[in-house]
Design a protein that fits this description.
With 311 residues, the chain is α+β, with helices and mostly antiparallel strands. The chain has a domain at 66-262: Alpha-Beta Plaits. Helix content is 51%, strand content 9%. It contains eleven helices and five strands; from the N terminus they run H-H-H-H-E-H-E-H-H-E-H-H-E-E-H-H. The protein has helices at residues 9-12, 22-33, 44-51, 66-80, 94-114, 133-145, 164-174, 199-209, 229-236, 252-259, 264-310; strands at residues 83-89, 127-131, 189-194, 238-245, 248-250. A hairpin with a 2-residue loop joins strand 4 and strand 5. The longest helix has 47 residues, at 264-310. It is elongated. The model is unreliable at 14-34, 37-50 and 152-156 (pLDDT under 50). This is Ribosomal protein L10.
């Protein structure tokens, strides 16, 4: 039997070519022989158009951050809410916030049930939320001093509230004009936003989270949950500062006056009509009295002259 031929394992491995092998030299020559790609020169106008389309102009700050999203949310809240209440809170616990929101929702639902048929239900749209004071103040400046409908620059459509142009215009006008809410925008704040000006719903909110002599809180027998420790603890740490109604600032007394309007906006219109009718009636009486007195004077003078002629 012939002997078997045995090969070492190293003989089966492929040897790496030397650094100066022909294959390596060929690859190097091909790499050096290749012509470089021509450089693409783009103008700043094309880069700006590609990065910032007309539908989304550049923002003053990155739009994807949380602060920018809150800024946009507060702008929408201020523009869509004709009535906003401002409260100052102090270390209110999460369970206390939950209890306050529960009692507020129940009170507003009760008002909707009473006004069914005469007014659209808005209880689900009235929310009590905590805000970031600095971002809210900046959003208020944009809403007060910047009009997104008017074009800012010729040939540009920077109409959104996060644009650099909106920030610059708001900062310039802020130095000359004042919104009136500057003294209230300090410290931890919470707001209650209303989609419409409804004195009935405002009265329910004041009676629930800011009770007073004019707006008493519900009795323990009528609503025992309202007098729980969580609700009362939250009420002790919540204070009403004022309100923003139709772009105007109202203090605590003015806010109570709006909530105390009997019959809501309908009752206010009825009072206005009655007042105008009273003014019209008094004006008519004054004019009639003047004409009647003039007629009596002329008539007495005529009779006097006739008597003298007969004599």
């Amino acid at each position: 039997m012939p002997p078997r031929i045995r090969l070492r394992p190293r003989a089966l491995h492929l040897r790496v070519s030397a650094p100066h092998s022909p294959l390596t030299h060929t690859y190097a020559s091909l790499a050096t022989a290749t012509t470089p790609a021509p450089a693409i020169h783009t103008s700043p106008e094309s880069v700006s158009i590609r990065r910032y389309p007309p539908t989304q102009p550049p923002s003053h700050k990155p739009p994807e951050t949380r602060k920018s999203q809150l800024h946009r949310q507060y702008q929408s809240l201020l523009r869509s809410s004709p009535l906003i209440l401002l409260f100052q809170h102090n270390n209110i616990l999460a369970v206390e916030w939950m209890s306050l929101r529960r009692e507020l929702a129940a009170a507003l639902q009760k008002v909707d049930a009473e006004l069914a048929g005469s007014q659209e239900p808005i209880a689900d749209e009235i929310k009590l939320q905590v805000i970031q004071t600095g971002i809210f103040a900046s959003a208020l400046d944009i809403v007060e001093y910047y009009d997104p409908v008017k074009p800012t620059l010729e040939g540009e459509d920077m109409v959104h509230g996060l644009s650099s142009r909106a920030y610059e215009i708001a900062q310039k006008r802020k130095r000359k004009l004042k919104s009136g809410l500057e003294p209230l925008l300090s410290g931890p704040l919470a707001v209650v936003a209303f989609p419409t000006v409804s004195p009935q719903h405002l009265k329910a909110v004041l009676s629930t989270i800011s009770p007073s002599k004019e707006f008493p809180a519900p009795k323990r027998k009528a609503n025992p949950e309202y007098h729980s420790l969580e609700v009362q603890g939250g009420l002790a740490k919540l204070m009403l500062l004022g309100a923003r109604v139709e772009g105007k600032v109202f203090d605590y007394e003015g806010t109570k006056w709006i909530g105390g309007i009997e019959g809501g906006l309908g009752g206010l219109r009825a009072q206005l009509v009655a007042m105008l009718q009273g003014v019209g009636a008094s004006l008519t009486g004054a004019l009639e009295g003047a004409s009647r007195s003039l007629y009596m004077t002329v008539e007495s003078r005529r009779m006097d002259m006739e008597e003298k002629e007969k004599g």
